[in-house]
Structures are given as C-alpha cells and as structure tokens.
Amino acid sequence: MDTPVFIFAAYSNVGKTTYLERLIPCLKEAGLRVGVVKHDAHDFQLDIQGKDTWRFAAAGADTVAIASASHFALFRQCAPSLEEILAQFTDVDLILVEGFKQARYPKIALFRADSGKPLAAEPASCVAVVTDTPVEAPCPCFPLNDPKPLAEHLLRTLHAPIPEGDDSHVHHS
User: Fold this and answer.
1) Percentage of the chain with pLDDT > 90?
2) CATH architecture of 5-40+86-159
3) Domain map of the chain by residue range?
4) pTM of the predicted model, to two decimals?
C-alpha cells in the first residue's frame, strides 16, 4: 500500500474523534481525498434489525453488501486486521486511523492535560504530538484546539520527498 497512514493514538475521552472531525475539513480544503478508520473496542451494530441486509446476515451470510446510487456498505462477520481494512481504501490520498495504536504506522499522539491519562504512545515513536499543554517530545507539537497547523505539517510531509530507506515520516507498506 502506497497510501500514507497515520495512527491517532490517545486514551478514551481525550478528544480523538473531535480533533479528527476538525482536521478532515482542513485536509479536504487542500484537495486531499481522506479516508478514516475507526477502531471500536466494543461490539457495534450499523445494520438495523428487520432490514433486508440484517435478515441476510441473520440467515447466515458471511458478507452482505448494500449499494445505492450514492452509498456502498459492506458488512462482514469477522475481525479484520488493520491491513485488511486499509486494503479497502483504494481511492484516497491519506488514511487517518483512530485507534489501533499498537500498529506499526507513524503515530500522532493526542494529549489533554486534564484527562488524567499519559500519552498513549512513546514520544520517541511519534511523528507529532497534539496537546493542550507543553510536552517534551523529539517531534513537532501542535495545538489541540487548532488542527490547521497539523494539517499544514501533514501536507508538507506528504509533498516532501522521503529519503530512500527513511520511513520515519510516512509509512509505505
């Protein structure tokens, strides 16, 4: 996969979803096609009981797809790896991942001082830290309340040539 992937690592209630929700429009304004993967530690249900797709799955189908003129969804009865999920993203310039903090992709750690929780990733393993308070880190730090500086940094990173053998900025798998 040649699409750059960045893991947004933080503990619950630090603000990952809110931050990504504000970062995505900044990246879209720059013309990027953005994909997002959300890891959910709980069992989630997107399908609605009684609807046709739910009925097919309840009847035993392992994979069910539904498509319209403007949407497509695929329901699979499995626990795919992050790599399997990422392989589905064929039409984007960048993939932002919320969760999967153990995966071997560049990490952007989010930290909120009043959360009572430490950084969810070692600063040395991060390509950036997003925080509401000063943090000692060997990588750039960006404000938690303003996603534009990180968006600009990511755009520079994506457009900068990466030296051969250096995958510290963007992971190509």
Assistant:
1) 50
2) 3-Layer(aba) Sandwich (3.40)
3) 5-40+86-159
4) 0.83
